[in-house]
């Protein structure tokens, strides 16, 4: 029996995770998936209930679980809190405490949604990129950090971009291993022309490249990579990059696929244990309205089945069901276009479950 910690979090997190749970329950009840689900609090919701965005009980639950499913954190309500207790700290704390250094963010264009992209169909059709983002280091976690007051009374904010060789090497290896199962190409993204830290990043990636002669390694500066992603995204297979560059580039890559509401992610530790979440945020502007797209979260469950629970057939079932509902013309508002049937969050979840049951 595998234990899954369910952490809906804030905003639309509550609604989309509820739909993903329906899918897990369907696999359990109809297809014999051996899982036990237990819910916990994280983010602003946890802060309101306990005074901290990452309560001890949640951390304990996440550590004891085989995998974690997370919705999203954050919202207007908590924006004025001290940064140390903001909802985002709950998510960052989980990543760091669980050692989830490897963040896999696939950007795949579903052919049914080619029209939903803001880019021309010929630029994005067939798009299949995997962004491998370092997740527990870099400027997100570097010390020292803070806001200090200078002698002249002016305030100064500062953060530190820091990567050790071993941190670069281990994320590099993840990227090379993934590329070996795909098209065999890795593009490492840095800012080696300006930042010493990423000059080292490039050096270490080059060494790792030599240890993986079957993989074609290239390097690109992050500004160029952002441009190339919108100019000719299909040139990329696997991209590997730092925590902050990966944060930015993965949103950009997501939008190529039409909606950020479609894309799942996996955050893995050294042993393949993982936390799974949609790459979008808590969308407080549409929270509670039953309009958010639950497919990214449902597809995150598929990634969980593939990467942590070693149930590739069950993962395939979910992906097939998602394809089926898209074929049926069902669309939440974010991916809706003329002639398609607009559905709510819960209707989309129900449709995926119905498609699963039909298999
Ligand atoms: C993401 C998010 C998070 C990040 C925030 C919510 C802390 O933007 O997962 O991409 O910056 O990593
Ligand atoms: Mg982000």
Task: Give a quick set of tags describing it.
alpha/beta; Isopropylmalate Dehydrogenase; 10-stranded mixed beta sheet; two-stranded antiparallel sheet; 14 strands; binds 3-isopropylmalic acid; binds magnesium ion
Structure description:
A hairpin with a 5-residue loop joins β11 and β12. The longest helix is centred in the N-terminal third of the chain and has 19 residues. The strands form three sheets. This protein has a ten-stranded mixed β-sheet, with helices on both faces. It has a two-stranded antiparallel sheet with strand order 6-7. With 359 residues, it is of the alpha/beta class. 42% of the residues lie in helices and 20% in strands. The protein is globular. It has two domains: 192 residues, Isopropylmalate Dehydrogenase (3-Layer(aba) Sandwich), CATH 3.40.718; 154 residues, Isopropylmalate Dehydrogenase (3-Layer(aba) Sandwich), CATH 3.40.718.10. α1 packs across α10 and α11 crosses α12. The protein starts with a strand and ends with a helix. The structure holds 3-isopropylmalic acid and magnesium ion (MG). 3-isopropylmalic acid binds next to α4.
**Contiguous helical run count:** 12
What structural class is derived from the secondary structure elements? alpha/beta
Poorly predicted runs: none
Q: Which ions and ligands are bound to the chains?
A: 3-isopropylmalic acid, magnesium ion
- Major beta-sheet overview: 10 strands, mixed
By CATH's scheme, which homologous superfamily of the largest domain applies? Isopropylmalate Dehydrogenase
- Rounded mean pLDDT is 97
The CATH architecture designation of the largest domain is 3-Layer(aba) Sandwich
> Per the principal axes of the C-alpha atoms, what is the gross shape?
globular
How many structural domains can be distinguished in the coordinates? 2
> Briefly, what CATH class of the largest domain?
Alpha Beta
Strand content: 15-25%
Number of strands: 14
């Amino acid at each position: 029996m595998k234990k899954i910690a369910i952490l809906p979090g804030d905003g639309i997190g509550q609604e989309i995770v509820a739909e993903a749970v329906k899918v897990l329950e369907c696999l359990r009840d109809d297809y014999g998936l051996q899982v036990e689900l237990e819910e916990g609090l994280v983010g602003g919701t946890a802060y309101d209930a306990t005074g901290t965005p990452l309560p001890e009980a949640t951390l304990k639950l996440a550590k004891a679980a085989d995998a974690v499913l997370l919705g999203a954190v954050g919202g207007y309500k908590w924006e004025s809190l001290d940064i140390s207790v903001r909802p985002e700290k709950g998510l960052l704390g989980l990543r760091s405490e669980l050692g989830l250094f490897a963040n896999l963010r696939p950007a795949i264009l579903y052919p049914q949604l080619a029209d939903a992209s803001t880019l021309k169909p010929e630029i994005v059709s067939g798009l299949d990129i995997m962004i491998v983002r370092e997740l527990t280091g870099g400027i997100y976690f570097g010390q020292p950090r803070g806001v200090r007051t200078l002698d002249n009374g002016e305030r100064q904010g500062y953060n530190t971009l820091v990567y050790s060789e071993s941190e670069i090497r281990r994320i590099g290896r993840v990227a090379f291993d993934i590329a070996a199962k795909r098209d065999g190409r890795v593009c490492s993204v840095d800012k080696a022309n300006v930042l010493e830290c990423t000059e080292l990043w490039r050096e270490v990636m080059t060494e790792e490249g030599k240890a993986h002669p079957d993989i074609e390694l290239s390097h690109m500066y992050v500004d160029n990579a952002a441009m190339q992603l919108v100019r000719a995204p299909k040139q990329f297979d696997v991209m590997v990059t730092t925590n902050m560059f990966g944060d930015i580039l993965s949103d950009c890559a997501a939008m190529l696929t039409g909606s950020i509401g479609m894309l799942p992610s996996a955050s893995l530790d050294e042993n393949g244990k993982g936390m799974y979440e949609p790459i979008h945020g808590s969308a407080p502007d549409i929270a509670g309205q039953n309009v958010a797209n639950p497919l990214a979260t449902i597809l995150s469950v598929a990634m969980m089945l593939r990467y942590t629970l070693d149930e590739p057939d069950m993962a395939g079932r979910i992906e097939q069901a998602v394809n089926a509902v898209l074929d049926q013309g069902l669309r939440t508002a974010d991916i809706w276009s003329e002639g398609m049937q607009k559905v709510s969050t819960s209707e989309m979840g129900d449709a995926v479950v119905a498609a699963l049951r039909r298999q």
